[in-house]
Amino acid sequence: MSVISDAPAVAAAEPAALAQRLYRAIWRWHFFAGLIAVPFMISLAITGGLYLFNDEIDASLFRYRNYVAVGDAVLPPSKIVEKAIEAVPGGTLSSYRTPAGADRSARVTLSTDAGRELVFVDPYNGAVLDTVGAKEEFNEVVQDLHSLDYFGTSWERIIEVVAGFAIVLTLTGIYLWWPRNQTGGVLSVRGTPKKRVFWRDLHAVTGIFASVVILFLAFSGLLWSGFWGAKLNASLTANGMGYPVQLWDNVPHSMLITTDVQPNASWLMENAPVPESSLPASGQTALPPIGLDNAVTIADAAGMLPGYEMSPPSSETGVYTAAIYPADLQHERTIHLDQYTGERLVDIAYGDYPATGKAIEWSINLHKGQEWGLFNQLLMLATCIVVIAMSVSAVVMWWKRRPAGRIGVPPAPREKRIYIGLWAIAGVFGVLFPLTGITILAMILFDQIVIRSVPPLRRLFS
Fold first, then answer.
1. In this structure, are strands 309-311 and 273-275 parallel, antiparallel, or unpaired?
2. Is the model's pLDDT at 13 over the cut of 60?
3. d(CA 88, CA 65)
């Protein structure tokens, strides 16, 4: 009788034990992913939170160079550029940003031997308000730190891996949070800061409330990545879902792309080709270049939103490029002008983008806190604070749990079928996010081969 009556209990215990081992396996890889990602997640949250308020920072901390007293008449752009070059001898014009309003300064970007220099000029009297290296400008530094571009383009690959890990952490975190007959730690935080359960619950509860936004930020952030984002951009364009290539059908192309003449181009337009100005046919007299003043006049007459950037031609076949990528996407626009005739060779606005392109640009705007005004900024700021809280609580939780002198990695499962599942997950991420998948593969190999084969490491990680 006892054998018969115990059979259902044994059968029930087996799946429960397997579920527990699966839980520990996922916990182990959640731990490993967090070990790599936490420092970068904190950095992304701090710099992202700052960049959400770049306009407010410009209007307060740097008001002295961005705002001016309204005068009677604005100087011609060429005269403003002359004043900027006087302040930076040897500089050559890279771009000219028109004043965004009657009380706003003009900004001239000059190319120098030391790099690009930003010169802020009062458009009424030509007074130079400030000069700063483009790489030292506060918001530019914040943006470059956010993308790790500050340390070189190769570091951008790390951000792509971290964005992938943010997705891994969120999905595995949801699995670990999922209620399993417990009531505490699901929607409420138990204990006090002295206890590990407090930090565990803080980590889990804040994470579950912010999980959807974190996933959105990770996916939309991946759009900027040098590998995954570039491949997606090229794929969309090739399939008619990127920038409308047909607008370039009847104009000659140069070897340049938009980012060569407008470093801060929008995601959809960054790889769009730059057209060429037409040179006179053999025997015809060449027209004189229209010059910066006329180029700005043409762009203004075309309805460009004030505050756009105008880049001059870089060669005799180059074009004037006027572009602006504001918070209001309806005003996003790029115009290429023939430097001799002033003809609009390409004129593309947000309304011309295909549905996919509009959706991506909208998601990027949302990521940057520019879509719904202050609400969007506060929503993203709150998510940044949650990410910091989750990262700090993860470290504290680990510190309170770890054995003395060891890292305290959750134990590895013994069942091969569980590891087959982990390999499958690595395979899926390898297809969707190659750099993240490769990193996960390296982690599995390190765990299975190196850690298990080297006794000191096995003890350290245990």
1. unpaired
2. no
3. 16
**DSSP for residue 450:** I
Residue 121 pLDDT > 50: yes
Task: Report in angstroms the alpha-carbon separations of 451 from 24, 45, 245, 283, 443.
Answer: 17, 32, 52, 76, 10
State residue 249 phi and psi, 5-degree precision. -60, -35
> DSSP state, 283?
T
**SS3 of residue 278 by DSSP:** coil
Place of tokens 């593969």: 441
| Those residues with Cβ within 8 angstroms of residue 28's Cβ, 6 or more apart along the chain or in another chain | 409, 410, 411, 412, 413
Residue-range domain boundaries for the chain: 2-51+152-223+376-461, 65-144, 243-353
User: What one-character-per-residue DSSP string does 292-323 give?
Assistant: HHHHHHHHHHTTPPTT-EEEPPSSTT-EEEEE
Q: Is the confidence at residue 49, as pLDDT, over 60?
A: yes
C-alpha distances (whole Å) from 134 to each of 60, 82, 110, 112, 311 are 19, 19, 9, 11, 16
Give 146's contacts (C-beta < 8 A, 6+ positions apart). Answer: 43, 44, 47, 48, 51
d(CA 305, CA 63): 21
Instruction: Phi first, then psi: give them for residue 182, nearest 5 degrees.
Output: -110, 155
Query: pLDDT per residue over 358-374, tens digit each?
Result: 999 999 999 999 999 99
- Candidates 9, 10, 1, 25; CA nearest to 416 is 25
- The upper half-sphere exposure of residue 222, i.e. CA atoms within 13 Å in the direction of its Cβ, equals 20
Choose the weakest-confidence range: 49-63, 102-116, 438-452: 438-452
199/193 Cα distance (integer angstroms): 7
- Residue 112 β-bridge partners: 115
Helix (H, G, I), strand (E, B) or coil at 341: coil
Residue 306 and residue 107: Cα distance in Å, rounded?
A: 12
Architecture of domain 65-144: Roll (3.10)
H/E element, 128:
strand 128-133
40-44, 117-121, 228-232: range with highest mean pLDDT: 117-121
Q: Which residues of 3-16 are buried (b: 16+ CB within 10 A; e: fewer)?
A: eeeeeeeeeeeeee
Q: Where do we find the tokens 């009847």? A: 250
pTM (predicted TM-score): 0.86
Beta bridge partners of 324: 333
365 contacts 329 by C-beta, under 8 angstroms: yes
pLDDT band at 14, cuts 50/70/90? low
- pLDDT (average), residues 196-207: 87
The DSSP code for 246 is G
Q: Which residue has the higher pLDDT, 297 or 411?
A: 297
Element (H, E) at 256: strand 253-257
